[in-house]
């Protein structure tokens, strides 16, 4: 009750409005994703469209709006998530964020990766607000590119653990895609969100991309949406302290 009192006492109409807007944008992007799927775009790509676009909306939310705004957006979206789960396979919105290769465990992979992403980014925002941008960028771009490249060029497979009792595999090519994408997106995000010199940005980007690649590779299937934002945020913080840099 004390936590709820503290949370609600500082909410104004603009905080509520911003939360509503974030939720509506998410709903619009989900509709677009569903339309892509309905027009025979492979589900892995329609799902990743939503993943990437809403990640940037969410990044804007947690960087420029209050923590309460993010919570309001989540609370508004929660009943819709329940509806999607209840509707199940064949529903327009369920199909928008499901994948064919998850057909035996579609409900799990529709629900838990988004929940993990929200929790991972919110925890990053809560513990290290000045560094969390690196986690959201890597989640949105590096993780996505790893899956896309792995699906198209992933010939050298390796086994990974799963949160549920299924066989899960990733590929060396996908992991290489994660590394390259993380290297680029880390450098770009550090350029926009910090005043670090070029050499520092290159060194930090290299270390971050190595760690992100390792984290993505060893995370149980379905959990990297949680581990990538938290660990990459913490890694940037630790490296910044080592090199005496301030975000």
List the helices and strands and how they pair.
Blueprint (H helix, E strand, L loop, with lengths): L1 H8 L3 H26 L4 H22 L2 H21 L4 H5 L9 H22 L5 H21 L3 E4 L7 E4 H22 L4 H21 L5 H19 L5
Antiparallel strand pairs: 1-2
What is the gist of this entry?
The protein has 247 residues and is mainly α. It has ten helices and two strands, in the order H-H-H-H-H-H-H-E-E-H-H-H.
Could you tell me how far the N terminus lies from the C terminus, measured between alpha carbons in angstroms? 35 Å
Q: What oligomeric state do the depicted chains represent?
A: single chain
How would the global form be characterised?
Answer: globular
**Structural category:** mainly alpha
Radius of gyration: 18 Å
By DSSP, the count of extended strands is 2
State the helical fraction.
over 70%
Main beta-sheet annotation: 2 strands, antiparallel
Cross-sheet strand order for the largest sheet? 1-2
The helix/strand series, from N terminus to C terminus, equals: HHHHHHHEEHHH
Mean pLDDT: 87
Number of domains: 2
- How many helices? The count is 10
User: Uncertain segments of ≥5 residues (pLDDT<50)?
Assistant: none
**What share of the residues does DSSP label as strand, in percent?**
under 5%
Walk me through this protein's architecture.
The structure is a single chain. This protein folds into 2 domains: 1-98, no CATH class; 130-247. 76% of the residues lie in helices and 3% in strands. It is built from 10 helices and 2 strands. Strands 1-2 form a two-stranded antiparallel ribbon. The longest helix is centred in the N-terminal third of the chain and has 26 residues, at 13-38.
